[in-house]
Structures are given as C-alpha cells and as structure tokens.
Write a structure and sequence with these properties.
7 strands, four-stranded antiparallel beta sheet, 205 residues, alpha+beta, flat, three-stranded mixed beta sheet
C-alpha cells in the first residue's frame, strides 16, 4: 500500500466566477461579498467545509463562513467602506450596513461629528470607519473612547490613538539569572571626547 500523504486532505471545491457590479460572487446558490475594487473581476472561489475563500491572482481578497442553505446574501461591511466615501448616504440605507453592530463609541463619535460639522461630520466619520481596514473593531473602539474623552474629533487623531494602542511597551532588561553580567560597572560616557573629535582636523565640523 502507498504511504499516507504528508498533509491531511482538504475537502474543497474550486470554481471560477466573476464578481457582479454589487461586488457579490455567487457560490453554491449563495452570494458573498468581496471588496468593491474587485467588482466585475474574475474570482477563484475555494469552498471548504466551513469557510469560503475568494482569490484574485492567487491572493485571498475575501473570506466568509460557508452557508449551506440557499439564496442568501452575505455582506462584509468592510468591503464597502471605500464606496461610502463617494456615496455617504449608503451608511444609513445600504444593505451591507443594515445589521452592522458596532460598539457604542462609534455611535457617540458619529453624533458629535454630525452635531458640530453637519454633513461633513458624516464624511469625517466614514473616514474613521475606514481605519477598520487596518485596525480591529476592538482597537478602534478603544481609540474612539480615548478620542472622545480628550475631544480629539478628527480621523488623524483617532488614527494616532489606534496606532498607540498597538505599541508594545519596552521590556526592562533584568540581570536575574545572568550571574556572568552582574558585578560589572559601566563607566559614564566622556562627553569631552566628542568635543575633541569635533575640533580635530578631519573630524566633524
């Protein structure tokens, strides 16, 4: 008998499809969204037991939980954020956003932006939503809470706060368990040596 293959067999089905004008791809009697950049594009669908992946030029551009029912439509709101900047009213009336359940800090930020800036406040809020293309919902929700607390009501400020939340604090180097490094004195730097280098011929000027 032949030996077993080195990796487990993956039960899947591959199909070549084309995304519609609504950035939807049909697979196994259901429709799934892909980013709007790929509307009208050929897409390779990889249907597994639990997930459905969508590839363009061998790159995964979308992934959904597989639906074994039929005639359902599955949207990922993140796939339509770029379109919102051109059609901001879609935030309230677009199908992809109907059941989008976001933390309370998102709603607070939107209300405050629209109260102070009107229609431009909605556009600014949509720019903030686009940060979800780089940050998780939890990261952005935390950043929004901090922004609201300090009155930082711009996408640039929220972006900085979201990035700060990702930074890992510098670890303190400990000598514990390193006896060969203990008992050594590190001499203080001699700053006057640098001054001599500056004045020495051929040195820094």
């Amino acid at each position: 008998m032949l030996p077993l293959p080195p990796v487990d067999f993956e039960a899947r089905r591959l199909e070549s499809r084309k995304a519609t004008s609504l950035s939807l791809v049909r697979f196994d009697r259901n429709d799934y969204s892909v980013p709007t950049d790929y509307a009208y594009h050929p897409v390779t669908v990889v249907g597994g037991l639990d997930r459905v992946r969508f590839l363009v030029h061998d790159r995964v551009v979308a992934e959904h939980v597989r639906d074994w029912q039929r005639e359902n439509v599955h949207y990922n709101p993140l796939h339509y954020l770029a379109l919102l900047e051109r059609k901001p009213n879609g935030l309230d009336f677009g199908k992809p956003f109907e059941d989008w359940d976001l933390p309370a800090s998102f709603d607070v930020m939107r209300r405050r932006l629209e109260d102070s800036l009107g229609s431009e406040g909605r556009r600014e809020f949509i720019k903030i939503l686009r940060l979800l293309e780089k940050h998780s919902v939890r990261e952005l929700a935390t950043a929004l809470q901090r922004a609201i607390a300090i009155g930082a009501m711009t996408v640039d400020a929220v972006g900085v706060l979201a990035q700060e939340g990702r930074e890992v604090p510098t670890k303190i180097f400990s000598l514990d368990g390193r006896p060969h490094l203990q008992g050594h004195d590190v001499p203080a730097p001699k700053l006057n040596t640098y001054d001599k280098l500056r004045t020495r011929e051929g040195g820094l000027s």
